[in-house]
Design a protein that fits this description.
alpha/beta, Aspartate Aminotransferase, domain 1, Aspartate Aminotransferase, domain 2, seven-stranded mixed beta sheet, four-stranded mixed beta sheet, 13 helices, 17 strands, 19% strand, globular, binds pyridoxal-5'-phosphate
């Protein structure tokens, strides 16, 4: 059997994979088993922020792999402590819990909000207000937090304790906070899986205001938007928000699995020994790679992400067959006249890989994509989208 046949025979059928077997990559390019080269505008769904086989990141990981690939959270290790310090310094938040994925980072946020509600209000204050169209992962509590019914069906009953309101509906948010006994508001600043839908500054500030007045925690899910993706270290920062909990994953790993839940002043001491844990969380090799990622997100690097994102977006806006371009930095959603799935297939035929989010073509290229690669990507996308 070849790779595709083995995959079909032996791997649980949760993914509708593209008919491509990838073997290796370098920079913004990846190759398939037939030696075909693709410009990858998906970066492993926003993970490979320095592209494939980045030398600095690989060196950081391999140096640690050869020393201490894994131990356990029964012991202290340097990469894990250094990474926590780097994240705290970058954000002004106070403490970090490490796990292995975005969903787990959100599970930790949800558990923390519940424990905080119990301790600072009373046990029935466990509800978390989330937004329709939001996506927070596929584990059971993260799934209940995800405001999209299509992911819920087949897995009912949902974990209780979530109240969903419409994004941009500040009044609805206010009503939910008044009518339910709540611990937190949880949101993404740009709903990624929901179709690259940015929330307005007005709504984000209103959500922070509701959280403040009703004494709720503000949880910002930065799993997709974080790590420079939108041109800021975390996407909430340019809005001046002060979240109590921030969740991070994807690009933080730079190519290896990691999740992080960051706690502010009000939540830093909520989790205590035995209340949460993860065997692999804080793994030294993964943390060494993440430390390299965080260290390279300088103001100059982030400004370049914004510039490149604007270059790509403006090369696509108004082109034939393109209805709109949403998003910020190098997180873009392109609404095309042709169905997004057809556009992706045609792009693949032209040697370009991209993603889908709802009815849009989603672009999450490596943050190191060059100007020439952006021009090439824009040319191919425009050609494919034109009638
Ligand atoms: C905003 C957001 N939160 C959480 C997740 C879940 O992350 P993971 O797939 O690492 O569990 C995702 C994944 O796409 C995401 O975009």
């Amino acid at each position: 059997m070849n790779v595709k046949e083995k995959d079909k025979a032996y791997i649980a059928g949760t993914y509708s994979r593209f008919p491509v077997v990838l073997t290796h990559g370098k920079g913004s390019y990846v190759w398939d088993e037939d030696g075909r080269r693709y410009l990858d505008l998906g970066s492993g769904i926003g993970v490979n922020i320095f592209g494939y086989a980045d030398e600095e990141w690989t060196a950081a990981v391999t140096a640690e792999l050869g020393k201490l690939a894994h131990t356990s959270n029964l012991y202290h290790t340097s990469p894990c402590a250094e990474l926590a310090e780097a994240l705290v310094r970058a954000t002004g938040l106070k403490k970090v819990f490490f796990c292995n994925s975005g969903a787990e980072a959100n599970e930790c946020a949800i558990k923390t909000a519940r424990k905080w509600g119990e301790e600072h209000k009373s046990p029935e204050y466990y509800n978390i207000i989330t937004l329709k169209g939001g996506f927070h992962g596929r584990t059971l509590a993260a799934l209940a937090a995800t405001g999209q019914e299509e992911y819920h069906k087949d897995f009912l009953p949902l974990t209780p304790g979530f109240v969903t309101v419409d994004p941009e509906d500040a009044e609805g948010l206010e009503c939910a906070a008044s009518e339910h006994k709540c611990a937190a508001v949880m949101l993404e600043t740009i709903q990624g899986e929901g179709g690259v839908v940015p929330l307005s500054e007005r709504f984000l500030l209103a959500a922070a205001d509701v959280a403040k007045r009703h004494e709720l925690l503000l949880i910002v899910d930065e799993v997709q938007t974080g790590m420079g993706r939108t041109g800021a270290f975390y996407s909430y920062m340019p809005f001046g928000l002060s979240p109590d909990i921030v969740t991070s994953a994807k690009g933080l790993g730079g190519g290896l699995p990691i999740g992080a839940t960051l706690f502010g002043e009000r939540t830093a001491e909520v989790l205590t020994p035995g209340t949460h844990g993860s065997t692999f969380g804080g793994n030294p090799a993964v943390c060494a790679g993440a430390l390299n990622v965080v260290g390279r997100l300088t103001p100059e690097f982030l400004a370049e992400v914004s510039r490149k994102g604007e270059k790509l977006a403006s090369a696509l806006r108004g082109a034939e067959g393109i209805r709109s371009v949403t998003g910020r930095g190098l997180m873009l959603g392109v609404l095309t006249e042709k169905p997004a799935g057809d556009v992706l297939s045609a792009l693949r035929g032209e040697g370009v890989l991209a993603l889908k989010a709802k009815d849009k073509v989603r672009l999450l290229p490596p943050l190191t994509i060059s100007d020439e690669e952006i021009s090439l990507a824009a040319d191919v996308i425009r050609k494919v989208c034109a009638k």
